[in-house]
Specification:
Layout (H helix, E strand, L loop, with lengths): L11 H6 L10 E8 L5 E2 L7 E3 L1 H13 L4 E7 L16 H12 L4 E6 L13 E3 L5 E3 L1 H18 L3 E4 L6 H11 L8 E6 L6 H7 L19 H14 L3 E5 L5 H10 L4 E5 L1 H12 L5 H15 L3 E4 L2 H10 L1
Helix pairs in contact: 2-3, 3-4, 4-5, 7-8
Length: about 325
């Protein structure tokens, strides 16, 4: 007898009944770029995405909430940058003000603060610089830990529900966890960018955040795209042991195998970061008429869920939520 799997795909009702993977607005984390200007500034390399004022960030968060998206993540672009990235941990910093404003207006929304220094340093790296024996510039790992911990505490004090360290410094999760606990923020979770690659897919983000390195590169602290599974497992395991509450894979699309590997290995919530370059590629192809944007985006995000993501940071969040509502 001929086996006929097509029988179970014949109608929309049958297909909906038998889907194993769900995709809904509550799975999304909406990223918001916040600067210290009063105007909205479109980002040329990311059509549809802008830098927002603090008031504009509140409105973006409100739009997300109204579409059923319960989470936002904040990235700050300060007016002043210096070698230590001091505006990252300033009590009146742009992220601190935005977090406080969003929580005041939308107390039930989950506000995640990106915890890094690259947007705040004048050299674009994720911590203060030092020179190697060979004369190359690199980040002083242990000096960065103290500043990242200070940043996380200031973000929690401002009202951030979650801090998300993205610097890829060895020991950053442990340093941040200890600092949060000592400051009375033991209830604030750490969403670790545990597996973060030195990727070409970050190009548009560096334009958006003004964080392109002025010297050297990040290959000495972000992960080698050809590093393989063992390195990914080691990084994730170290962060889990240090107290991470979430693990993240960034970028998502080229590393779905790593996402699946972490899902099979760890029982922590898993986040996929659908990064700026992935977003820009779809936008460019859609604008050229090469691809159906709606179908492509929803298929891509579904793939990340299928690979094991509990949540997805995506610049498509508002559009995807609207499309899901329509369907």
């Amino acid at each position: 007898m001929l086996d006929r799997p097509r029988r179970l795909r014949r109608t929309a009702g049958l297909r909906a009944m038998l889907r194993e993977v769900s995709l809904a607005p509550q799975h999304f984390i909406h990223p918001i770029f916040v600067h210290e200007q009063d105007t909205e500034v479109p980002i040329a390399t990311m059509p549809g995405v802008s830098r927002h004022s603090v008031a504009g960030a509140v409105e973006q968060a409100r739009q997300a909430r109204d579409l059923g998206i319960p989470n936002v993540i904040l990235f700050g672009i300060p007016d002043h940058k210096d070698p230590q990235g001091s505006q990252a941990y300033a009590e009146g910093g742009v992220i601190q003000r935005a977090a406080a404003a969003i929580k005041a207006a939308l107390p039930d929304l989950t506000v995640i603060a990106d915890t890094c220094l690259c947007e705040y340093t004048d050299h674009g790296h994720c911590g203060p610089l030092c020179q190697t024996a060979e004369g190359d510039w690199t980040v002083d790992n242990d000096a960065a830990l103290a500043l990242l911990a200070q940043t996380a505490v200031s973000q929690a004090r401002a009202g951030a529900d979650v801090v998300a360290p993205s610097a890829m410094m060895d020991g950053q999760v442990g340093a941040i966890r200890a600092a949060l606990d000592a400051a009375g923020f033991e209830h604030v979770p750490v969403m670790s960018y545990a597996v973060k690659y030195a990727s070409a897919y970050y190009g548009p983000f560096r334009d958006a955040a003004g964080s392109a390195p002025s010297v050297g590169n990040r290959a000495s602290y972000q992960m080698d795209p050809a590093g393989g599974e063992r390195e990914a497992l080691r990084e994730a395991r170290l962060d889990a042991e240090q107290g991470a509450d979430f693990l993240m894979v960034k970028p998502a699309l080229a590393y779905l195998d790593i996402l699946r590997l972490l899902r099979q290995t760890f029982d922590l919530p898993l986040v996929a970061y659908n990064v700026s370059g992935e977003y820009a590629l779809v936008k460019a192809a859609a604008q050229a008429g090469y691809m159906d944007e709606r179908r492509t985006v929803l298929e891509t995000l579904t793939g990340m869920r299928r690979a094991g993501a509990d949540a997805i940071i995506t610049y498509h969040a508002l559009d995807a939520a609207r499309w899901l509502r329509e369907s």
